[in-house]
Amino acid sequence: MDRLAALEAEVKADADAQKARKEAALEKVRDQRAKQLAENQDLRDRQAALVTKKKPVERQVVNDDIDDEDASDADNLRGALELAGKANRVRKDLTRKPKKGQKSKSWLVSGGASLVLGPLGWLYAGSLREAVPASVGWILLMTVLTKILPSVLLMPVLMLAMPLSMIAGVVYAMAFNKHGSRQRLFNDEKKQLKSGDE
After folding, report:
1. CA–CA separation, 34 vs 26, rounded Å?
2. Per-residue pLDDT tens listing for the chain (198 residues)
3. How far apart are CA 198 and CA 196, in angstroms?
4. C-alpha dihedral over 35, 40, 42, 48, to 10 degrees?
């Protein structure tokens, strides 16, 4: 009985020692984990401080005007709102239905014709004083260039010129719909013909 009691005490002492070692190891792991998390958080805080820290604004004096290189958040927001307002006006111009009795031109047709035909598409909605000379010049230029240049070298020129022509065709159609007549694109607003070109 004494041996059994001693054995039980020894087993209990061994189990308690193992439990104590296990708890000590767990406590050590918890401490290491907490230390690692604290270091990571400190690193994140320092990185955030570096990222959000603004550089000192350099000012340059040019013609007695002071220009800031970095725009403030308010200026960025103001610019975004202005851009959104312009986009909204363009959307309204594109979707505007003509008033009763007012002539209108489709900006899709004008843009498509100008993309495919170049300045010849401007004849649909553009000022005839600009579209006719541009069309004649376009035909002559393409005739000469196709005789001189191989089509491989002509393609980059067309890939640049045709989208620009399409944009001009869309702008012509929008100006036509806004004023109800053909409007000049390459002219001052004051000099634009109110009644339209012949």
Report:
1. 12
2. 888 888 899 999 999 999 999 999 999 999 999 999 999 998 888 888 887 765 544 444 444 444 454 556 667 777 777 877 777 777 676 666 666 666 778 878 888 888 898 888 888 888 888 889 999 998 998 888 888 888 788 888 888 888 988 888 888 888 888 877 888 877 655 454 444 444
3. 7
4. -170
